[in-house]
Amino acid sequence: MLFLFVTFVYNKFKPILDFIIDIDTNLFLFFNGINNSFWDSFFYVVTGRVFWIPFVLGLLFLAYLRVGWKVVYVFLFMGVAMGLADVVSVKLFKEVFERLRPCHNPIITDLVHTVNGHCGGQFGFVSSHATNSFSLAVFVGLLFKKKFRFVMPVMLFWAVLVSYSRIYVGVHFPLDVFCGGMLGAIIACLVYQVFLFSNQKFNLKLEEL
Asked: Are 175 and 125 in contact (CB under 8 A)?
């Protein structure tokens, strides 16, 4: 019965899904097609994990200036937000939907611009980079919203840059990135609520952030 219901729903909405996927593919080919050697080098750095390190260290230093050794708790929750985002994006999305990355899609693979031949795993929905970066950006933005309001827009700009880099290097469609960003933001809000509860429950006195 469940199989029949799922089949019915899929067939009912298939034309809409095909329309959305077609737009998504054309948007990818447009943005991915805007490239040159300078941006290849730039976005290859942006899309790498090393690019994250200065932002994380800077945020931890900022938190240390406010709360001292309690920065350990901040680091813990930042890790939870990013770890949860990474696991959910892979286990509940990539391995469930199994949407091929652009560079693995046989229909458009000859049109895809990649950088240094990197393509990544077979499936790309949703983008873990987008999920992770937005989970960190939104969580940290909420964390510092009282004393350092500039943190949220700066972190969101960083997350958008990282997310766009995944389109540029040819490993994700725009919809992969958009949905990944939304997922990351939702996870960040949930973790932030746990942070507020823990702060009150265990009297961590981190409200001065």
From this structure: yes
